[in-house]
Amino acid sequence: ETGVTQTPRHLVMGMTNKKSLKCEQHLGHNAMYWYKQSAKKPLELMFVYSLEERVENNSVPSRFSPECPNSSHLFLHLHTLQPEDSALYLCASSQDSGRGETQYFGPGTRLLVL
Amino acid sequence: GENVEQHPSTLSVQEGDSAVIKCTYSDSASNYFPWYKQELGKGPQLIIDIRSNVGEKKDQRIAVTLNKTAKHFSLHITETQPEDSAVYFCAATANTGGFKTIFGAGTRLFVKA
């Protein structure tokens, strides 16, 4: 257990569905991240939140919408996804962002878009 | 843009042998270099890290070396065991006032019993 939990662990959705991924960290960290992990590609940073404010948005399509209601919770709202969005979505947290802090990852949500 | 290259992409060793994974980074401002291990069905977990003011760090069977001049850093696993089989990622973080961690593409390590 890393102190970062993600739900659901697996998700299958159609291209017209709306779903949300949830991440919770129990480490008292101030920064949270969403990554996309596709086969044989480096981890792709999607969003960074620091103290509940979004500080990074790496040109992610608007069909992905993050939400950070407090420093312990992070959501990724999904809407009209494409099959190429199928991947493992990882949440991570760190004490602070941008200062060489170790990131602690959750187990990920395996997403399949049909 | 900045990137981190990781080699090899796949590595197969016999149990008890050593394994070496190498990474090269491009951003000279990088000063923190973590290594993560990802087992099947789990997220990446930190196994060792090194900062730019240190050339080598060791933790039991795992060691990391850093050559800042050449912008190279490597992970060394000695006396490999089957449970070392996993995907390993290197990363480089630049302390430039904003978030900037770049990951390598990963190395899949197989340790044959």
How would you sum up this structure, described in words?
The complex is a heterodimer of chains A (114) and B (113). Chain A contains no helices and 11 strands. Chain A has strands at residues 4-7, 10-13, 18-25, 31-37, 44-50, 53-57, 64-70, 73-79, 87-94, 104-105, 109-113. In chain A, a hairpin with a 2-residue loop joins strand 7 and strand 8 (73-79). In chain A, strands 2, 4, 5, 6, 9, 10 and 11 form a 7-stranded mixed beta sheet that branches. Chain A has a 4-stranded antiparallel beta sheet with strand order 1-3-8-7, with no helix packed on it. Chain B is globular. Chain B has strands at residues 4-7, 10-14, 19-25, 30-38, 45-51, 56-59, 62-67, 72-77, 86-94, 101-103, 107-112. The mean pLDDT of chain B is 93. Chain B contains no helices and 11 strands. In chain B, strands 2, 4, 5, 9, 10 and 11 form a 6-stranded mixed beta sheet that branches. Chain B is an all-beta fold and 113 residues long. Helices cover 0% and strands 58% of the residues of chain B. The chains are: A mainly beta (114), B mainly beta (113). Chains A and B meet through strand 5 and strand 10 of A and strand 4, strand 5 and strand 10 of B.
Low-confidence blocks of residues of chain A: none
Number of strands of chain A: 11
How would you describe the shape of chain A? globular
From the structure provided, what is the oligomeric state, counting identical versus distinct chains?
heterodimer
Any idea what the radius of gyration of chain B is? 14 Å
Assign a percent range to the helix content of chain B.
under 10%
Figure out the total of helices of chain B. 0
Largest beta-sheet characterization of chain B:
6 strands, mixed
The class by helix and strand makeup of chain B works out as mainly beta
Can you tell me the residue ranges of chain B where pLDDT is under 50 for at least 5 consecutive residues? none
User: SS-based structural class of chain A?
Assistant: mainly beta
SSE order of chain B, as H and E?
Answer: EEEEEEEEEEE
Strand residue percentage of chain B: over 45%
Average pLDDT of chain B, rounded to a whole number, is 93
Q: What's the N-to-C terminus distance of chain B?
A: 41 Å
The helix/strand order of chain A is EEEEEEEEEEE
